[in-house]
Design a protein that fits this description.
about 375 residues, 2 domains, three-stranded antiparallel beta sheet, 11 helices, 14 strands
Length: about 375
Amino acid sequence: MPHETRFQKNMMVDFSPGPSQLYFTVEDHTRNAFRQGVPSLSHRSRAFEAIYQHTQEHLRALLSIPTTHHIFFTSSATEIWERLVQNLVVEHSAHFVNGAFSEKFYQVAKQLNKSAQEIRAADGEGFALPVKLNTELIGVAHNETSTGVALPKEFIYGLKDKNPHALLCVDAVSSLPFVDFDYSKIDSVYFSVQKGFGMPPGLGAWIVNDACMEKAASLQARGLPIGTHHSLPSYLKNGLKNQTPETPNSVAIYVLGKVAEDMARRGIGTIRKETEYKAVILYHELQRHPGLPPFVQDKTYQSPTVIVANPGRQTEKFATYLSKKGIKAGEGYGVHKGAHLRFANFPAHSKEQFELLVDSIQAF
């Protein structure tokens, strides 16, 4: 099957990091969902239960998620920040902050009146060594979408080694399906579908282990507030029946299962190798280009999936130039808007599209 859809023909190559370019099978799967009446299914019906089970099974197969971890579906990864704090924190959380999105999770904990500790690195930088913390929950972004910093998996696993009694919760919103996690070293992982899975926004996936379930149940047993309809015990009660607490985005759940199946058929090893190749050629060109250096200078922390260039005053000029070439670059985020360009490197982006991008940069 060609690596494009009818919807994407005659359109710009979209390198925005989310919502990003659609995966090439999404349009057809969405059409099939409507033909099959998925939007009208009751979330208590056997037909929906079959969709839920299919999606779970294919996510597990694609991402090697063990049965020790449950998979729940939410409206977004942003919602999951709130659910994590509500369900898993009595008083203390700790947050590794090195960009806008890790900062937002920290702020959510403060807004929910928790004693939240911030461990900060400058934008564009990572963290040197895991540290021991007096906390119940550790929040860390594997891939900080706003700045293009990816933390080494060894650092994340080291946090769990140093803090075995804390629940380690990892933002993998712009990492998956590329990153290959060892889930035995992580308590919770979460992502949204509009980035690496190349889908329209409106669905989050929340992966949690039994330690998270036990903590939420213990808080509930103590009479502490952990949320109502969307508490972890509610998710588990419904999830065991392949259902959701409320009427969900059933079309997105259906399409996610089909996309995960497509990616597994393509080969997750192939996808990861292609992602690495695309990252190498783009970083190489940015490094040699006099006006477009990578924002993240330390190769240890350079993200393979969200590559950020730092053209400074030439940002608007360069974005306009790329647009004329049929390439849409992502804008800088937050305080970096107007100074950065971000390039998503997701499975929806082909090697040929990245080679076009590199050739265009060379010609600038």
